[in-house]
Amino acid sequence: MSRQTARGGDPRKVNGELFTLTYGALVAQLMKDYENDEEVNKQLEKMGYNIGVRIIEDFLARANSTRCNDFRDVAEQISKVAFKMYLGVTPVVSNWSPAADEFSLLLENNPLTDFVELPEGHDALIYSNILCGVLKGALEMIQMDVDVKFVQDQLKGDNITEIRLKFIKRLEDAVPVGED
Amino acid sequence: MASMGKQKSSSLDKSLSKGKPEVNAATYALLFSEIVQYCQNRVYTVPELQNKLAEMGQHVGSHLLDVLFLREKGFKREIKLLSMLIFIKSNFWKTVFGKEAEKLEQANDDERTYFIIEKEPLVNKYISVPKDKGSLNCAAFTAGMLEAVLNGANFPAKVTVHWHKGTCFMIKFDESVIARDKMIDSR
Lengths: 180, 187
Known about the structure:
The structure holds two protein chains of two kinds. Chain A is built from five helices and five strands, in the order H-E-H-H-H-E-E-H-E-E. Chain A has helices spanning 2-5, 16-33, 37-63, 71-87, 130-141; strands spanning 13-14, 92-94, 102-107, 144-152, 161-170. In chain A, strands 2-3-5-4 form a four-stranded antiparallel beta sheet, with helices on one face. Residues 1-8 of chain A have low confidence and may be disordered. Chain B is an alpha+beta fold. Chain B has five helices and five strands. Chain B has a four-stranded antiparallel beta sheet. The termini of chain B are far apart. The interface between A and B is large, with 50 and 47 residues. Chain B: One of its GO terms (biological process) is vesicle-mediated transport. Chain B: InterPro entries: NO_sig/Golgi_transp_ligand-bd, TRAPP-I_su5, TRAPP_component.
């Protein structure tokens, strides 16, 4: 118990295990409710998108970041500021494409996947797909159309978890997609 | 059990982390908000929604149980009713929600019933209840967690959530729990 007294108390923070398990409960529920893994992936991305659309406001209000000049700035902000702020981890930015319109976020410790093992027969499930939705939603709100997807996942036996972001285009006069 | 082909690492091969880095409250609030919306889209009434949230809470609670007893108590389980309740009020609450629960009370007229009262549970912090759903309390999720923890520790109980002095979790133990507790006492 004494070990626990050191932390706790900060109302701006939430126990990471509670977070991980809550996300786990959500995925487990989706697995029950939907027929196949692809549908679950889609649903997770949609939820992530909704979160992203809202989290960007919080980010802009708190992070005090300056305007990004290019996609490299964006990558830095995502990994060093946004991930750090919201998930407490800092992914490594790497694997830039020659045209600098594509990069990867490498995650050593994905906070969503503690305690998680994928059961047999669910190879198509992208467990942490919510992250793709969040990134896509948040970037869309700042006029960037970006394609986000998992290319490696430790849950599937890869050495590292890798999220690939590909810049598609700048959105002009972006009208947010209506909620459904 | 073991998977073929690619090497998937098993959680059991890794050592258990000691306590966890925390995440931003906003992250959690947004995730929880999505959960509530998702549940709401699949049900018609407030009680159904609360049941659905409680179910997900149970999933969380049952997974927290072992790790909590291991870390906090060195694998020693509580066998006395009162110490179990105190464990929940203090250790459990503190670890999971960052502070102790505000109050633990027993019902005057029923030895099976206890209340844990929390003015503003974590999950309700950013939720404003719509007028037409006045009775909705999303801390049903927390109630589900409590229920799973109690059941997992072999204190079968029903936990429900009510609006009373903030949020009140009503814990109603199974007859057998009370009988067993009396037996331990009398020894």
